[in-house]
Amino acid sequence: MWRTPWAPIPEELQRCVECGLCLPHCPTFRLTGSETSSPRGRINVMRAAAAGVVDPAAPVFADIIGFCLQCRACEAACASLMPYGRVIEGARAEMAAARPTPTTWLRRLLLGRWVGRRRLLQAASVGAALLQRVGGGHWLPRRFRPVVAGLRRLPLRPPTSAGCDLPAIGVQVGVAGLLTGCVMDPWFGPVHEATITLLRRAGFRVIAPKGQTCCGAMAAHEGAAAEARKLAARNVVAFAGVDIVVSDAAGCSAHLKEYGHWVDNGGSEFADKARDVTEVVAEAITAGSLPRLPTNGRAVAVQDPCHLRHAQRISDPPRLILEAAGYRVVEIDPDGLCCGAGGAWSLFWPTKSAELGDRKAAQIQGTGLQLVASANPGCEIQLRAHLPHAIRVAHPIELYAEALASVNCLGES
Ligand code: SF4
Ligand code: SF4
């Protein structure tokens, strides 16, 4: 039986008609060929738990539910509109509540609390930057090494955009609140810079409220539901008064759009204002408030982050942005199969994560290109860890901002 208020509700679980349409889209099913590693298998084990046949404390429940990447490819494929993302988060919350082990406690602490502490993250980032400079990645436990290998070169003094309040360039069309995120600020400063510049250039005053915190996606994915709820509630208050809330990390923007589920008071209104930066910039290009540049004769491979393509059903905007930057866009994977990052999944299933990472890297290398665009930090790290160093991985927004800067087209700063 279920133990928490986050448990999957019967009406949601009953949506699955066991047709199996989702199976070929599921990366863990593709890896194992096992029904228990499929969306249908996982839904059935949740139904068994709801009926009291399987205890969420049982190792079999943790094995089946814990192995899910939460990529939501099954949700996008499902004709019965199964809200898979929500039910798996509920099942993870049950798993964590039923098995309060030291590992569960540590995950809650790391992904539910520490992840929201800006100074702590900055200190950790400085440590990682030092480690990079002394080449000490191999000192870490094996499962952490791909993450360190996939990082950009980190600055010794991590930047922060928290607290920024910058006017629109030209006529103001609205106020955009920027989610600074957990690792986006210290690890992906250039992406934030590009986002701020392009939003301003598109007519938005950009503010990054100091009172904001981590979006809570990692906490929700790891079953730290109470912590996820607290983080979301804090953001709802911090972003009151802005017209749109923008994130340049697909995993975060997907979670912001789910705040109606996490926060009773104001969560739905917040969710309606949440946007991924690729949506906003693509709309500005289409409306003519950001320019399209002529072709630069170069090509870029495009990788679809699951939380952009499957969770938010956004696939055209990154392509439109890259084309507007002058690139020819080359597809690598019509199925949009997960790269194997899955938030913290790669740390818990390193071998399987590497298998998926290698598959994606092979698809990219098959194009012969030296440039790949990805709109999510976790995917970027995973791709870089599995690709040769000569291949650059960048956010589409960064590539577009660089292209505009190269022709002096960014306006005043
Ligand atoms: S989740 Fe949807 S697609 Fe998958 S088996 Fe159930 S009904 Fe079919
Ligand atoms: S979320 Fe991804 S890994 Fe999990 S069942 Fe669905 S398709 Fe498979």
Word description of this protein:
- With 413 residues, this protein is α/β, with parallel strands linked by helices.
- Among the domains are: 10-100, Alpha-helical ferredoxin (Fumarate Reductase Iron-sulfur Protein, Chain B, domain 2), CATH 1.10.1060.10; 291-406, Rossmann fold, CATH 3.40.50.
- It has 23 helices and 9 strands.
- The chain has helices at 10-14, 27-32, 39-50, 59-66, 73-77, 84-98, 102-113, 118-134, 145-149, 184-187, 189-201, 217-221, 225-238, 250-256, 259-262, 267-273, 277-287, 306-309, 316-324, 345-348, 350-367, 377-386, 396-406; strands spanning 165-166, 174-178, 204-207, 244-247, 274-276, 299-303, 328-331, 371-374, 392-394.
- It has a 5-stranded mixed beta sheet.
- β8 (371-374), α22 and β9 (392-394) form a beta-alpha-beta unit.
- The longest helix has 18 residues, at 350-367.
- The radius of gyration is 21 Å and the shape is globular.
- It starts with 9 loop residues before the first helix and ends in a 7-residue tail after the last helix.
- The mean pLDDT is 94.
- The structure holds iron/sulfur cluster (SF4) (2 copies).
- One iron/sulfur cluster (SF4) binds next to α3 and α5.
